[in-house]
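Final paragraph of the annual report: two paired records, presented back to back.
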Amino acid sequence: MIKSFNELKKAVLENSNFILTTHVIPDGDAIGSVMAFDNYLKQNGKNVTIINHSPTPKVLQFLDDKNLIVVFPDEPERLAIQIENAEVIILCDANEYSRTRSMEDYIRKSSAVKICIDHHTGLIESEFDIAVCNIQYAATCQLIYDYLKFDNENFINHQIATYLYAGIMTDTGSFRFPRTTSEVMRICADLIDKGADPVLLHENIYDRMSKPKLNLLQRFLKSFEFHFNDEVVTSHVSERDFKETGAELNDVEGFTSYLMGIENVKMGILLAEFPKGVKVSIRSKGNIPVNELAREFGGGGHLNAAGVVFDKLPTGQIINTLLKSAEKFFNNKLT
């Protein structure tokens, strides 16, 4: 990592105008990483704009209390010019330009130095000028923490500590996923010492279920179907469910925990319809590589947590396609 850290630091020192972005439908690690790196760059006197394809989920908007993040589809012409004129574009918590959706072509065409900071599998290093990536990390925010410690620990102020803790907490499933190591816990202890409030962050992200989300949860729970001798459970929420409950797409965050909390279930699949497609979240236990399953359809992720966005197709068709592909992970044929 030292070589890539040095390359990243050199790019920071030698340039002034930066664009930060992350993947479509951002999670806590995505928002935490762009917010933390934005703060770091500004401490270095840089001009920074965070441009994302998707709006920030309501549950994470408190992290961006100054509304620094702008949404590309809201102002495509103006923001396309900014991307074109940037000196450096940094893709956080994603390693494929396609994950930026509407921004992809503009980023590819830009002459800017392109940097990837990420912890997912599937990196093609030739796509970037600098790749600060390691799949052993529990979160991109953990990777950024190590980089900041490498550069100068004093950069980790209470705001950055808050952003990084939020990203690590969410990507480890509140410190219960397999990559929750003793090192992760030591890092989080240090972030608390530097100003992160673990109680407030947990309350803001996990303990504020709205009535629309509660009503959506009821419909989600009724959608369960079991396969492969009850080792796989599938579920879905429809556009109609969102409309009738008043819930939003990001309200399904955390729903996969209900799937994986069922006795004997080894894989859970959640489909969530939105106007332009279907978001699929896949979770597993043990050595079932759901990232490989997601990658077959243009998605990606980790061994036990992955996702993919399908074009607008019937949910039943998508479920059948996923199950057919997942047969190889189970001894029983499709049932």
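The closing record of the year follows.
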Amino acid sequence: MAPAAGRRVPGRSSAGRSDPAAPPIAAILGPTASGKSELAMAIATRLPIEILVADSRQLFRGLSIGTAKPSAADRRAVPHHLLDLADPDEPFTVADWLAQARPLVDEIAGRGRIPLVVGGTGLYVSALVDGYDFASQPWSPEIRERLAAEVETEGLATLAERLARIDPKAAERTDLRNPRRVLRALERAESAGRTQLPRSTPYPGRLALIGISRPRPELSRRIHLRTASLFDAGLLTEVQALLAAGYSSDSAALRSHGYAEAVRHLAGTLTLDEAVASTARRTRQYAKRQLTWFRRDPRIVWVAAGDRPASDPQIVEQARQLLVRLIA
């Protein structure tokens, strides 16, 4: 049966047309801690790939432990791109990311390899494959993540004042004592402002979008284990070094999950156990928003990983076969 008008299908570009000259783009997507990087590294033993990292935090220099950035050994084994692009206090937009990501697709294909996008920042992936068009994106998990962190660190009154400055009419209609309503109104206001940014056209080549699916309890378990491991691996030391280097705790990078909690622990306002628990909770919330973003895309073919490691041979082979079939 032919797809309904306007419906996107696996392997087809969002423009509804395919340019044979455009190299295919493959991707491994999913929420944080689902095993995307582990699966990508295993795929690299079976397919010639280079990895394009689609992660709005791993692009910052100095944010390595708290973002679970690929290790030096992994980066030596498989070329990784789009890491360490900006300082933690440097503005960096999706347009900046796209400007660097798009040329890499052709460069990697020119080397006879497959460009494999790996990450959980759905806004970046959408910008690459669907075109840079915020008007078609009603919200972004990145905006929600940042605003949720700000209401915890700066307080509701500060965000209510910002809403009044950005969109006075929306502020008049909003119960400014209700955190959820203030966050939603501010989110809409900020998203609307971003629609004025330049746009790019949808990618015309073939797409192979693979998602890693796990039961919610298993994903929560993995998030808890990862959170504990980040603190054990030296997250506090990493944050101390960032603050000592002069980066403000008010920067967007240091307000994100894990880093904000580390800052508060170092300032003496959170115990270590409280910092770990808060990080795990906020990470679970972020993972939920990531899944909401990805689940609405019918082109993504989901691989059920259950409680198995992402490097499980059956999972790797299933993903490999899907990638090969979809980009053929």
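Residues 25-132+197-327 form a domain with the Rossmann fold fold (CATH 3.40.50.300). This concludes the annual technical report; the extension proposal builds directly on these records.
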